[in-house]
UniProtKB/TrEMBL annotation:
It is an enzyme of class 6 (ligase). One of its GO terms (biological process) is purine nucleobase biosynthetic process. Its EC number is 6.3.4.13. Pathway: Purine metabolism; IMP biosynthesis via de novo pathway; N(1)-(5-phospho-D-ribosyl)glycinamide from 5-phospho-alpha-D-ribose 1-diphosphate: step 2/2. It catalyses: 5-phospho-beta-D-ribosylamine + glycine + ATP = N(1)-(5-phospho-beta-D-ribosyl)glycinamide + ADP + phosphate + H(+). Gene3D superfamilies: 3.40.50.20, ATP-grasp fold, A domain, ATP-grasp fold, B domain, Phosphoribosylglycinamide synthetase, C-terminal domain. Belongs to the GARS family. This is Phosphoribosylamine--glycine ligase. It comes from Methanoculleus sediminis.
Length: 430
């Protein structure tokens, strides 16, 4: 069946979404993005270059294109209420309403929801409405805390005591934030990501992924939006037991049920970022969309018709039998401009070499007269797929190393050494 789908967003995540949709030759893709992504543009029937939150411009474009559905990539348009407006115009969407997206856009709402419904995995927390209240709590708390602005931070707004700041630094950061802040117990363990398709009631999980936030090899340097990620051929991670996985999945299911019970049913992609602690998985945060880069791992493995999944979610009859992922490992490696993230060198030319069997996803990059140029954020990513992690890593590394220009990438992502480091860490805290 022919299907016209609007994809909102222009990053690496949205290129992965677009590619997955394009695997069905009967699907026609229309794109809205703030800056032209060369990979998306080549797959789209029509492109509107517009800010993804400018709903007044997006609505007539979607209507004139006659789209049947929309897939929302980034969080900002979700917070702006794009799904509500599209659905009011008769265009169903893969993405939650503004009220349901609060699971990501309002950290206080998320914690209070979990507390009200007795959902497991909620860390100790305190919502403070002014810097003085935050100061008193920080100075009186016996232990380290994570200091989180309540709203969106792009994955970079959290400061952790004992890692980024001391007590005085935490107080100062809360003062810098100025308004409301969430203070949470510092979670110690290994992070993992569990993403799921959700149709408002039913939840179908995707393979587990681990992201790497730190800019430099060895997990050092400033936090970024993510330098790369990996998944294994059994869709698990060696430092996450089957019991821990089941607990994390139950937390996701209970959260979806809580949203439904409160009159804000959740439909779209639910992203659970967990810390696997000695006491089992705890929720670092929920996101109301695919992760970036994690979307590139899972969508590169998707064997089912993505457009068909979108349709099932819209109809509210999604089942596990509708979703199938290849039993392969993946490694995603982002290339970023020299100086990233503090002082990225923009407008530098790039040359792609022979990237072999890797999948190429364009992100924050500009094409001028056939030549790619860096901008100020992550430039492009390669995903290697293989029967083993070693095979997938070799494919991704060869591809990333083939690019010449003022860019760098983390060579250690997906290597046996870094995986063993994760496993050793879990054994140490057990």
């Amino acid at each position: 069946m022919d299907m016209k789908v609007l994809v909102v967003g222009g990053g690496g995540r949205e290129h992965a979404i677009t590619r997955a949709l394009s695997c069905n030759s009967d699907t026609k893709i229309f794109s809205v993005m703030a800056r032209k992504n060369p990979g998306i543009a080549r797959l789209a029937e029509r492109v509107l270059l517009e800010n993804e939150t400018n709903i007044e411009k997006i609505l007539p474009f979607a209507t004139n294109c006659g789209v049947d559905a929309a897939v929302i990539g980034p969080e900002a348009p979700l917070e702006a209420g794009i799904v509500d407006r599209l659905e009011a115009a008769g265009i169903p969407s893969l993405g939650p309403t503004r009220a349901a997206a609060r699971i990501e856009t309002d950290k206080a709402f998320c914690r209070r929801l979990m507390e009200r419904h007795g959902i497991a995995g909620c860390p100790e927390y305190r919502v403070c409405r002014d810097p003085e209240e935050a100061r008193r709590f920080i100075e009186s708390y016996d232990g380290d805390l994570a200091v989180k602005p309540i709203g969106l931070t792009g994955g970079k707004g959290v400061r952790i005591m004992g890692e980024h700041v001391d007590v005085a630094g935490a107080v100062e950061y809360a003062r810098e934030i100025g308004g409301s802040v969430v203070l949470e117990e510092r979670l110690v363990g290994e992070e993992f990501t569990l993403q799921a398709f959700v149709d408002g009631e039913h939840l179908v999980p995707m393979p587990l992924v681990q992201d790497h936030k730190r800019a430099y090899e060895g997990d050092v340097g400033p936090n970024t939006g993510g330098m790369g990620s990996y998944s294994l051929q059994d869709h698990m991670l060696p430092f996450v037991s089957r019991s821990d996985y089941e607990k994390a999945l139950r937390i996701m299911e209970d959260t979806v049920a809580a949203m439904r019970a409160e009159g804000t049913p959740y439909r779209g992609i639910l992203y659970g970022q967990f810390m696997n602690t000695r006491d089992g998985p705890k929720v670092i945060e929920f996101n109301a969309r695919f992760g970036d880069p994690e979307a590139m791992n899972v969508l590169s493995l998707l064997e089912s018709d993505f457009a068909g999944i979108v349709g099932r979610i819209i109809e509210g009859d999604l089942a596990p039998s509708h979703v199938r992922f290849a039993n392969k490992a993946t490694v995603c490696k982002y290339l970023v401009p020299d100086g990233y993230p503090e002082a990225p060198r923009a407008n530098e030319p790039l040359t792609l070499g022979d990237y072999g069997d890797a999948l190429l996803y364009y992100a924050n990059v500009e094409e001028r007269d056939g030549t790619l140029h860096t901008l100020t954020s992550r430039t492009l990513a390669f995903v290697g797929r293989g029967e083993t992690l070693e095979e997938a890593e070799a494919i991704a590394e060869k591809a990333a190393s083939s690019v010449s220009g003022s860019v760098f990438h983390r060579r250690d992502i997906g290597t046996p050494e870094i995986l063993e480091k994760r496993c050793r860490h879990m054994r140490e805290i057990a």
